Amino acid sequence: MEYRGWAPSFDRVLIRGNPRDRECLAFWVKDGTVLAAMNANIWDGRDAIEARIRARRPVDLERLADRGIDLAALMETSG
Coil, strand, or helix at residue 5? Predict the structure, then answer.
């Protein structure tokens, strides 16, 4: 696992994937903005996730939760 960002307060934790499979991403979100993220056995997109956290811009949460949407492209272009 790897945790990035900091979320001392948040509205929700959004899970992308299934924790039971031991492969998922968790995003700590406030007002539609990703404040922090943790990956569990998913290593693609780490740089894009970190860039999104630093940008402090809202992201489409429904698309963020959808494993069928390319994570790196979503994190770089939305919001």
Answer: strand
